[in-house]
User: Fold this.
Amino acid sequence: MLGIIGGTALLQARLPPLEKKRVSTPFGPAQAHVGRIVFISRHQNDTPPHRVNHRAHLAAMKILGVDRLIVIGSTGSMHDELPPGSIVIPDDSFSPWDIPSLHDNDIYHIPPSIDAGLREELARIVPEGRPGTYFQTRGPRFETRAEIACFAGDTDVVGMTVASELNLANELEIPCAALCTVDNYANGIGGASAPDYDEIVAISRRNGDRITEIITKIVEKLA
Assistant:
C-alpha cells in the first residue's frame, strides 16, 4: 500500500477517489483518506507546522498497512541557481532543532535513511527532479536572513515538516522518500526578503496542475 503525506503543495491537486477515515493511534487520532492509496493531509484542521501531530500521522500509516511512503513538501530555495518552480528529491536532511521520536520512554537508536529505491523511482517519474539536502526549521515563522546564510552552504531547500516524517518512517520501518516543490526563495536568497505565506499559497495553486500530474504518475507507478 502506497502512502502519501502532503501539505501546501497539494492544496489544489486532484487525488484518486478516497474515503475519509478516522484512525485511532497511541499518539492521538489522525484523519486519513483511504482507497487505492492512503493520503494524509499534513495540516488537517488548519494545524500550523510546529503543532502537526507527525507521530499520529505516521502511526496511522503503519496501522493502515502502508509499506511505501512518499512525503511531499513545499520548500524555499537556499541557492540562487535553484529557482522557484524546481523540484528537489532529497538525498539527505538536516533538522537541528526538533527530531520527533516514537521512543520517549525507551532507549532506541536507528540510522537515518531516505530509501534509495523510492528515490530512484521518483527520479524516473520526475526526471527534472534534483538531489539535495532538506533543511528543517521548527516554524511557524519563516527563517531569518542570518539563519539561511548560516546553513545555505550545506543545505539546498528549507521547510518545516519533511525531516520529521522521514525520521518517524524510519522508526516504523516504512521505506520513505520525499519530493519537494520549490515555491519561493528563502530569506536573503536571490535578493528576496522574508517569504509571504499568501504568495506561497498562490504559487502552489498556480502549480496545481503540475503537482496533480506528478501525483498521478506516482500513483500509477507505485500504487
